[in-house]
Amino acid sequence: MNFPAAHLEKLAKLVDSVYNGAVSSEIVQADTKIPVLKINSRDIRKVVELVVHHKDLGFTYLNTISGTHLAETREDESLDLKGFEMFYVFSNSQDFSSLAIKTTLPENNPEIDTIDDFSGSANWFEREIFDLLGVNFKNSQDLRRIMLPPDWEGHPLRKDFKEGSHYNGIPTTRSSELEAIRIE
Amino acid sequence: MTTYLKNIWEASATVFEGMAITFSYLLQRPITVQYPDRLKEPVPKTLPKNYRGRLMVDTELCTACALCQKACPIDVIEMKGARTERKKGLTLIYFNIYHGKCMYCNLCVEACPAEEGDEEAHHTAIYFKKDFEGSGYELKDLVEQFIPREEAIQRLKEAEETAAKRAAKAAAESAPAEPKKEGNA
Amino acid sequence: MTSATREKELKPRVEITQISGTEIEVNMGPHHPSTHGVIRFILFIDGEIVVRAVPDVGYLHRSIEKIAESMPYSFFMPYTDRVDYVAAINCNLGYALAIEAMGGLEVPERATWLRMIGVELNRIMSHLVGVGALPLDLGAFTPFVHALREREHMMDLLEILTGTRMNNNYIRFGGVCQDVDDEFLKKLEKYLDHFVLFLEEYDRLIGTNKIFIERLKNVGIVSGEKALSYSFSGPNLRASGIGLDLRKVDPYCFYNDMKFDVPVGKGIKGTVGDSFDRYIVRIEEMAECEKILRQILSKIKEGPIQSKVPKKLVLPAGEAYHHTESARGELGYHIISDGKSASPYRIKIRTGSFASMTSLAEIFKGMMVADVIAYFASLDIVAPEVDR
Ligand code: SF4
Ligand code: SF4
Fold first, then answer.
1. Pairing between strand B91-98 and A36-39?
2. Quick check: ipTM above 0.85?
3. How many domains are there within chain A?
4. What is the pLDDT of residues B76-114, one digit of tens each?
5. What is the domain range of residue B58?
6. Mutate which of B97, B112, B129 to test ligand 2's pocket (most atoms within 8 Å of Cβ)?
């Protein structure tokens, strides 16, 4: 359901008033469906706390956490950045209207506070991002690789990831049968 | 004690209710068929019009435009077209499909511009047959060469010759004084 | 890698329970018949009771999200089939809708109706596997065969609609890949008449069975609050008494005009949110799908099935999070486009099964080993959807 824009302004004001301007937030309507609140990464816990627990908001349902490695310069100005972008989607458990929180992390040693005490599923979503993108979640209760084996090297969803030719002695690529019959 | 007995009774009674349904099926004609020996009619005949079986290429119809090759997400098709003296336009040199990798997604068929046939027998140059029994003992059995290998080598040679001739002709036309250059295919 | 380091990796940093002297570690999976694909649990058991459980996933990780970054948008469509092969058209639809929303593409009316037919048929098929595999895991083989027989009939219908039985790759940006004639619609209608009877019979076959009920009721209770915290969605969330259906609260296609109920768990045999509720919600939902299909059949009209879409699709720079109701809950696509290239910059797929998996470690605690299987089967998890 569309989240009313007026609501969002209220939220931005709320963020401002609760934390007395210590937390900066910015509204980005990056998408037609879900309004996005852009914040500084160090404030993530404060904003999530507000979004989840404030009586006027109650976005208790965590839809997903997504992360992106921004390696090449992007045309969109708001995204013109090197580093990592985190994208949290929350939904209201009453009417299921959604809201996204976006923040950026530096390219070297990306770190962000965990939010796994706000939602039972956050830990797994964070583990996936840790595994595939190598973002470190500070104070996480259980941060291990989830998809890949523990001895895997590198984080595949980073743009500069290069797959090794072998993993534990097993080749990672196989030549096509078509090559064997090529006549040129 | 009574609940205990009641539970046992309920358990067996409800099991028998399910059993009754199972038994009713015993009296009906079985829905399974004895594939492949005892079929009323061959399976391909019962398949719908656009069924996606194995890929087939009509090498006569194909204009060697390579659109199907470009449309395939996983490089299943390897084909080449070049000019020879056989016909106007491009001649198909070779056309190989690796069935073992194909995911029957239909993208190549949708891309193909060459088509023939009326409403009923309509098909594009690359199309899905209704045949689905294509297993082999080795991976290389799953590669199909629609132009036989010897023929393909022959055609490639012809194409090279044609290309050389054309290059020579072009060179002679544009700069007759210059020495002839060998073109490559 | 030595087993010792592997062990260290698998142990959570926080000890959930103190290990007593009699604890045994049991490895269940990845090739266990009841784990539906390849999912592994490490169970620490004390007698029959699970003290601690560590779910281990990733055996089916194909890095679909990375593959997407290397190909044009349209090439990724067959890959979305493989996210959830049991409900492939649902995954197609989510992706197509997300891209269409970003690129502002039109979809003709008939194409939308056909999409809905495909999606609802697929949803029924998927739930049939769910309710069929549940008794199978508990030891009853017959219902599974009955469910699969019905699914086979539906596959025959899908074969006419899409050309394939599974991994259909049916939906294209701005339309669908092929049209059907009226004969198919008549066939579908006739089949639906049969399906209603089957559903009734199926519920009689297993749903009233005392042993089946005893195995499921009050097992693996997930309260509404807990379900929200675990990001449950789809039938699993509704079984916990929360009637959220994205087709209702955030309608897409023509679901706005459809009349259907959202079945929720009422705890008819035990407590709200127990495993039996998850079973019965799926049965009721199939009946709702049947209702939707009938409404589609009465409303579908002739018309074009594909709008004009540029051959080389380049989306404007930006991002979108688009979610639809798949058979296993919320299927969300977070797509980022850089506005220059013809391939996505990033696609993140949020799936219902992955979210359901997050509950296992906690719910398994204190359960009997046999109940572990019952609870897990009732969640109707498909392993490729967890790992992607
Ligand atoms: S059906 Fe799909 S995978 Fe197979 S050759 Fe055609 S485009 Fe490639
Ligand atoms: S099969 Fe069709 S698309 Fe492929 S080269 Fe021939 S004419 Fe072109």
1. unpaired
2. no
3. 1
4. 888 888 777 777 778 788 888 888 888 888 888 888 887
5. 47-174
6. B112
